[in-house]
Amino acid sequence: MTMTYDGDPYLRDADTQHCACGCGGIVKPMDSRGRPRRFLRGHNLRVDHPLHREGVENWWKGRRHSAASRAKLSASATRPKPWLRGAANGMYRRTGASNPNWRGGVSPSRQLLYASAEWRRVVRSVRVRDGGCVVCHSARDTHIHHVQSFAEHPELRLDPDNLVTLCRKHHHDTHRRGVVK
User: Fold this and answer.
1) Antiparallel, parallel or unpaired: β 163-167 and 26-27
2) Is the pLDDT of residue 146 over 90?
C-alpha cells in the first residue's frame, strides 16, 4: 500500500518523510503523542524479505537477530520515553479506588491473615486434602486459591471448602480466566 499526498492535510506538512521500509509511503515523523514514527502502520524493515513477499505466515519465527540489530534494539529501548512519564501516562495519580486494579483496600487484613497461625493450619489441611494441584495433580510450586473472592467474601477466608490447591500455572490461568476446571 503506497500513500501519496492526494490533498490530505495530514500529509501536507513539511515535516513528512518516506516510510523506512522502502514502499514509498509518506509518514509524519511523530505521532499524536510525540513518539517517533518511521513506518506506515503494519510496515517494518522485514517487508522486503522474500518469504514475506510470497505471503508466508510467521516467516520470522525461529530466527534470531544479529548482534548488531540486537544492539540497535537495545539502544532504542533504553532511550527516554517522555510519553510514559507524568500526566501523559494514563495511570498518573490513579491511586486507591480510582485505579482499575483496586480490590477494596484489603491489603492490611490480607497480610494479617496470611501471617496468622490459623491460616497456616488451614493451608496445611487443604494441601493434605488435595494432595497437589486439583487440575494437573502436580505437587510442585503449589498455591492456595480462594474459590470465592478474598475481598468480596470475608466470611469465607478461612473456610477449607472455599480453598483449593493449584499449581502456579493453573493458579495464574484461574485468575486470568476466572474458572477452576
Assistant:
1) unpaired
2) yes
